[in-house]
Amino acid sequence: MDKREKKPLTQEEEIKKDFFLDLKRGINMIIPQNENRNVDIEKVARKCGITGIQRVPSEKIFNKHAVLIDSEIYVNSDDNPEKQRFAIAHEIFHFLTKWPMSDSMQAIARQGEAWKKQNAGSAEAITEVVADYFAANLLIPTERFILLEDKTDEEIANVFDVEAKCIGKRREEIENELYLMTPNNLSSDIDLKNQDPLSLDELDHVLESYSNHDSGQA
Question: Which of 37, 78, 112, 149 could form a disulfide with 129 if both were Cys (CB 3.0 to 4.6 A apart)?
Answer without folding.
Answer: 112
